[in-house]
Amino acid sequence: MSTDASSLSPSITSMIRLDHMHVLAASHRYHASTPWWRKRAIVNGVCDALEIHAQLEEEIFYPALDRALDSDETLKKSRPEHDQMRATIAKLRAMGPENAAYDGLFFQLIREVAHHVADEETVLLPDAERMLKNELQPLGAAMTRRRMQLLGERPMDIAVNAAGTFPIATLLLGSTILLAIRHCLPRSRRAGRGRS
Ligand SMILES: [Fe+2]
Ligand SMILES: [Fe+2]
Q1: Ligand number, closest to the Cα atom of 55
Q2: Which DSSP letter does residue 99 get?
Q3: Whether the Cβ atoms of residue 157 and residue 32 lie closer than 8 Å to each other
Q4: Can you state the angle between helices 102-119 and 78-93, rounded to 10 degrees?
Q5: Can you give the pLDDT at residue 4?
Q6: What is the pLDDT of residues 27-41, one digit of tens each?
Q7: What is d(CA 1, CA 31) in angstroms, rounded to the nearest whole number?
Q8: Is pLDDT at 179 greater than 50 in this prediction?
Q9: Residues 6 or more apart from 34 whose CB is under 8 A from it?
C-alpha cells in the first residue's frame, strides 16, 4: 500500500476507541421497558458490531501487538474473552426478546464487554501507542479495508445494523481511505488486477 494513502488514515487505536464508545452508547438505548422490536434491533446491531470488531482485532491489532510485546498477560486473555463474548452472543441469538432471560443475558454481555474494553483502553491501547508508533496509521488503513470486506459479506439488513452501530465518521473516513488507496495505486497494478 502507498505510504501516502495510509497516512490519511485514522490510527488503529482511535478506531478501536470509537468502536468501543459506539457499541456501549448503543447498549444504553436498551431498557427493560423498551418495545420488543426495538430491543431486537439494538441487540442485533450491537452483536454484529461486536463480532466484526473482535474479528478485526484478532486479525490485525492483536498480531501486531504480539510482535511488539514479548508476552503480555492482558493480551493473552483477550482472545478467550472474545470467545466468551461470542458464546453469550450465540445464546442471545438463539432466543427472542419475548424470553424472560433476554434482558438479563444482554446486560451480562454488556458487562463482559465493558470489562474487556476497560482492559484494552487502560493497557493494550496505550502499549500500542508506545510500541507501534509508526504503524498506527497503516494498521488503521488495514482495519478499514477489512471492515468494509466484512460488512460486504453480511446480508444487507445485518450490514445496515452493524454500520449503524459503528461510528459514522470512521466509515466515512474509511471510504475516503479506500478511494485514496485506489487513486494512489499505480495504474499498471490496477490493470493487472483487472486481468486476474
Ligand atoms: Fe477486544
Ligand atoms: Fe476492542
Answers
A1: 1
A2: S
A3: no
A4: 160
A5: 57
A6: 999 999 999 999 999
A7: 45
A8: yes
A9: 42
